[in-house]
Amino acid sequence: MGSEKQEFIWLSGLLFLNILVLSTADVHYYEFFLKESQFTKLCSTKSILTVNGSFPGPEIRVRRGDTVFVNVHNQGNHAVSLKWEGVKGSIDGSNELIQPGRNFTYKIELKDEIGTLWWHATSDWAAATVHGAFVISPATNEDYPFPAPTSDQTIILGQWFRQELTEGDKTIAPGRADAYTINGDPGVTYGCSNDTTFEMQVDYEGLYLVRVINAVANETMVFGVASHSLTIVGQNGAYTKRSFTNSLTLAPAQVVDVLLCANVNVGHYYITARPSSGTYITNGILRYLTTSS
Ligand SMILES: *[C@@H]1O[C@H](CO)[C@@H](O)[C@H](O)[C@H]1NC(C)=O
Ligand SMILES: *[C@@H]1O[C@H](CO)[C@@H](O)[C@H](O)[C@H]1NC(C)=O
Ligand SMILES: *[C@@H]1O[C@H](CO)[C@@H](O)[C@H](O)[C@H]1NC(C)=O
Ligand SMILES: *[C@@H]1O[C@H](CO)[C@@H](O)[C@H](O)[C@H]1NC(C)=O
């Protein structure tokens, strides 16, 4: 009896939530321009396919239950299709191959996804550089099921190949990466002093929702922040039971949302990302901006 009653309360709570979500759902329009851009990393310059010239690509930021139209203009030289990783709602055109010179509008109707998803090109050569975060915040009248973060930070773990992944009409299946990147930055461990290092700035006692996306094809990645423990709160677009850890192990395409509390001695700390097999390590920096009182 008791549990039936509880279930009823829980179910009506869910219904109520659904109605709220429906009543506040929003529609967003994004324009993506796929184009070749020159990038210099590991002390050499090459052309890569990007969305709007950025690597990683632009972030989509919406709320739970929203609808998103993404008009993708292919100004590159090869047909490309995009995949919306982790979307449970309906997608118009999920297998659409967009030819060079053409455009196509994906319509994504989110359901109850919450937290972080991501998007990427479907073919390996293009996915190496054509990808970005898909952030889904709580609906306007919905709270986080954990202390509200001061702000959030997306971290995309990626890879970099020295070789060009296209050659005239041909595309080349990439082999093993020459470097791993944090939000596009390889950092200083690959021996090129011109490479940039990712930096996340925090205020003392701030609480940060860090969205870690493993965009590295085929590699399990290990992520951590020196001297800071991480509280896992979400995964692949859903909240999870909270758990504490010192480092995250992310399968290819996996996304983990963690809370990071900036309550260690003011200073700067290494952020690290490395493939679980192999010897490379990529560093970023967590930098405290304010002093403790
Ligand atoms: C991409 O670039 C176009 C043209 O400059 C701009 O209108 C559009 O807003 C950009 N899209 C994103 C997601 O930044
Ligand atoms: C590093 O950057 C400087 C200034 O942009 C440039 O002159 C130099 O050639 C670069 N070095 C390498 C090895 O790419
Ligand atoms: C292509 O882009 C134009 C202009 O932005 C838009 O009106 C049209 O609907 C798009 N076509 C497709 C198939 O998405
Ligand atoms: C991933 O693995 C597949 C199958 O082994 C291979 O064809 C592809 O080139 C790999 N992709 C990357 C980016 O390493």
UniProtKB/TrEMBL annotation:
Organism superkingdom: Eukaryota
UniProt keyword Lipoprotein present: no
One Pfam family this sequence matches: Cu-oxidase
Residue span, Plastocyanin-like domain: 36-139, 153-288
Record keywords: Signal
PANTHER family in alphabetical order: LACCASE-12-LIKE, MULTI-COPPER OXIDASE
Family: Belongs to the multicopper oxidase family.
Protein name: Laccase-14-like
